[in-house]
């Protein structure tokens, strides 16, 4: 799996990902009804969780729980559009 970040996403995430933190790609099904209804989510974590797999990504370190890989494409792009969804 490979993730590409746009310049806008890099600019927005860089100040947030400090002090050795990393991104974890999650298919969050909490409150969604069943396991195939979920929301792709990025979590900021200190380290990979047990059962995680590394994701090829630059310039950030990323992981994903192995069981969630089925919900994502092999090549993905992460973008940031402030008018659509601001990061808090």
Description:
The chain is mainly beta and 88 residues long. The protein has a single domain, classed as HesB-like domain (Hypothetical Protein Aq_1857, Chain: A, Sandwich), CATH 2.60.300.12. The chain is 8% helix and 38% strand. The chain has one helix and six strands; from the N terminus they run βαβββββ. The protein has one helix at residues 7-13, and strands spanning 2-5, 22-28, 39-45, 52-58, 62-65, 75-78. Strands 3-2-5-4-1-6 form a six-stranded mixed sheet. The mean pLDDT is 87. Pfam families: Fe-S_biosyn. Residues 1-85 form the Core domain. This is Core domain-containing protein.
Output the helix-strand order. Answer: EHEEEEE
Sheet-strand content, in percent, reads: 35-45%
**What's the shape?**
globular
The separation of the N and C termini measures 27 Å
CATH architecture term:
Sandwich
The total beta strand count reads 6
Share of residues in helices: under 10%
What's the gyration radius in Å? 13 Å
Outline the biggest β-sheet.
6 strands, mixed
Low-confidence stretches: none
How are the strands ordered across the major sheet? Answer: 3-2-5-4-1-6
The top level CATH class name: Mainly Beta
CATH superfamily: HesB-like domain
Q: Given the helix and strand composition, which structural class is it? A: mainly beta
What is the fold-level CATH name, i.e. the topology? Hypothetical Protein Aq_1857, Chain: A
* Domain module count: 1
């Amino acid at each position: 799996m490979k993730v590409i970040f746009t310049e806008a996403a890099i600019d927005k995430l860089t100040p947030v990902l400090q002090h050795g933190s990393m991104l974890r790609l999650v298919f969050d099904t909490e409150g969604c009804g069943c396991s195939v209804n979920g929301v792709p989510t990025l979590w900021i974590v200190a380290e990979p969780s047990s059962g995680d797999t590394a994701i090829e990504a630059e310039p950030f370190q990323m992981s994903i729980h192995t069981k969630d890989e089925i919900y994502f494409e092999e090549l993905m792009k992460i973008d940031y559009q402030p008018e659509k969804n601001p990061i808090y």
